Amino acid sequence: MSDFFTFSDPNVRLVTAGTILLGISAAIVGTFTFLRKRALVGDAIAHAILPGVCLSFMITGEKHPAYLLVGAVLAGWLSLLVMDYLSSRTKLSTDTAIGAVLSVFFGAGILLLTSIQHSGSANQAGLDQFLFGKAAAMTQRDIWVFSGVAVVLLGLVLAFFRSFKLISFDPAFAKSIGLPVRRLEFLLSTITVLAVATGIQAVGVVLMAALLITPAAAARFWTDRIQVMILLAAAFGLLSGLFGSWISYTAPSMPTGPWIVVLLSMIAVVSVVVAPKRGIWARLRLQRSNARKIRQENILKAFYGIGEAADAPVATVAVDMLRQQRPFEDIALQLGLRELVKKGLLHKHKPGSYALTPTGLQESRRVVRLHRLWELYLTERMNYAADHVHNTAEAIEHVITPEVEAALLRELDHPILDPHDAVIPYQNPSKPSAS
Amino acid sequence: MKTAIETHNLTVAYNRRPVLWDIDFQIPEGQLIGVLGPNGSGKTTLLKSLMGLVQPSSGYVRLFGQSLDEVRSRISYVPQRESVDWDFPISVREVAVMGRYRKHKLLGRLNKEDHRLADEALEKVGMLSFADRQIAQLSGGQQQRVFVARALAQQADLYLMDEPFAGVDAASEEAILSLLKEMKQAGKTVLIVHHDLHTAHQFFDWMVLLNTRLIKCGPTSSVFTADYLKQAYGGQLTILSQVSDLVKARDFPIRERSFKDQPK
Ligand SMILES: Nc1ncnc2c1ncn2[C@@H]1O[C@H](COP(=O)(O)OP(=O)(O)O)[C@@H](O)[C@H]1O
Ligand SMILES: [Mg+2]
Question: Cβ(B45) to ligand 1 under 6 A?
Fold first, then answer.
């Protein structure tokens, strides 16, 4: 391991640097592909490049990277044109057009590849590496050319960043202010084709879409800023390139490309699970905290209801009385009672018997108030029948924020009674607050 | 009064099916103009062809007596809110400042003045305090206000807005409406695609009533008559269809049944 990370071997250094650069440029360009919802198109371009690469080899008889790039770009453009034509000029749907182009071009590529291999050309060795990539087999010349292209792409994205952002977000507006949207889209497509053509050196045609899209998709989970998203995507591209190279260095039988993609997928899975706000974990926690809030508020409401029925605040309430007031689930009730005691809203007198603390009383009044305000709002402003509003209010009462409560109070002018003629409890019982 | 917008025999077709048919009208400067017509009557298409976003099959458009390219910097376009992905990872301020992008500054940076104008526009629509939020965190009405702010930042003379009041809350409607009045006072011309007939005659000085062909164009009092409305909306103007629009626009649940079922 230390061997690799000291980068003492110049060849390792070069291959690793090249792989990382390709990963970074694919990730950054791919961010726009992802944001423009063109992931599938990226995949199709990657596959469509194969026949271009093969043809350029057949014509020139050489594996010079510049020739291969020219072939790749021409084939990539052609595939874009055909996709565009099929989806705009025929009745084929967009995904059908993409699928058709992908399979036809890729099929042609495989055919050409097979015929090259059977022709026994001395120079053909390594051409099949376009399928799954083999970074370690890149020659110095390859690396310089491809890295150079990657750097140029990065420069272009940086220079046109603002325009690319606009045409990705709102192309109609971009056109309305006179931006050359067609030409900018063409430029972005060309950059994408070039990023794909260089990226397949590292991971090959088949896995290229992953190198293009996965970093952006993972980055999107962590941020709401396109600038941060691009940096994160680049970082993911870098990390996977670095560790992919390391793995295939320490275990030479391990291919770099597939490992890069595996690492990227792992980053994506981690992002999906643990990212704040958007991640599954965060959403589960939010759901659990919602469930907790609902069960606590329902218990408080039951306390209030018992007091209301008795026409006076009741000193202590037995758990059985709560069950009569509302059909609680046993576990939820026990859990909720314990939580409320811990929060200082309930006071435990003896086992199975509880009382509201002063804050608990206020809180119970608040929940009942929200319920009744919402019922009133539905009947008064939405013309719902009074006997139809209870169930909706049961759900909405837990959601209403203090701002919404204030708006409701203003809108309904601090009402006294709800649609069922029950008194709406205000914070300060003696005088309804006037604003 | 000078003419702000004129179309001459404007015909637009999608896949050879005409959705605008031989539209001919002139609208003077300094008016609040409503474009009205039922769903699918070609209102959006009219705006897009004024903005050169769709190519007419015949006819042409003049803005301030000139072709679009000659006066583009004086025109501002607010697309339908649903036309973009509001989950896009940018902030409110970034959207507003897009109103300062210029075609001859494709690569150049935005300057201080651009950012100041964008913030000023956000202030005018009451969205400055939301400037750093991501646009997905806004309500529909707030999103619409951001779109209007972007248009204001353009400092144009003619504004073309597609359904700025669709699905908008009361506060946003108020904010946009008072802004429109302010713009009119400043001598701007504002053309608005609108779907709500109840409010239309209070909002607009001038109207374009559309249903594939032009039904009528003129001052509100001469256009907003039962006769012309019937021509535009035909049999669609039943209470039932209005109610169903309301249900759709406000996303009401329809499971509650407070009416008796109507006989067909
Ligand atoms: N890009 C398009 N391709 C094909 N048909 C379209 C396209 N855009 C709109 N249409 C059709 O043109 C008609 C007018 O649409 P539009 O201008 O959006 O109407 P409005 O804005 O009044 O609801 C509709 O029937 C619609 O289906
Ligand atoms: Mg429309």
Answer: yes
